[in-house]
Amino acid sequence: MNESSPGSRVVAMDALDKAPTRGLRAPAGRTPTSDPRAQYLAFTSGGETFAIDIRSVREVIQYGGLTEVPLMPSFIRGVINLRGAVVPVIDLGARLGRTGTEVGRRTCVVILEIPTGEDTSVVGIMVDSVNEVLDISSTEIDPAPSFGHDLRTEFISGVGKVNGRFVILLDVNYVLSIQEMASLAGNRDSTPG
Hints:
By secondary structure, the chain is mainly β. It has four helices and 13 strands. The strands form two sheets. A seven-stranded mixed β-sheet has the order 2-10-3-4-13-12-11. The chain is globular. About 25% of the residues are buried. Mean pLDDT is about 75; it is low at about 1-35 and about 190-193.
């Protein structure tokens, strides 16, 4: 399939590079070296806006062609065939402990490359929609908030402040950690159904 054809499922990375970036401008007198900026792909899941470092993003595709795999945890929606490679698709809403993502017109799968030791895994996350590429200054990113010892925030790499709103910056290395997901999958059947 030609990636530039109207029926294409693939949004090429160069299209993401050309997407409008929105963020806060550096104050007058600041040089780029004193105000490092990073780009994040912003998307919605369960009505909330999240973002991930764009360096982890391989591509964005339309949702479809998913094959369900039996006996998987609820957050693993299934697998897709991505140019001959089998890629697992994680429902981000369900993975974050929320309700599963309802398939709609703008539902898509963000294909990510996740470092796993000396190798890299390719994983897809199912989201409600992809919004934009955000250009966020490091000075506009706060550390993950502390909610106490019983609440888990390991999956948050920070909170970005963009145009008067907060955007949760996800740590894909933790959210999509193979070890963490395997642990959760092992715990899902601990009670008889």
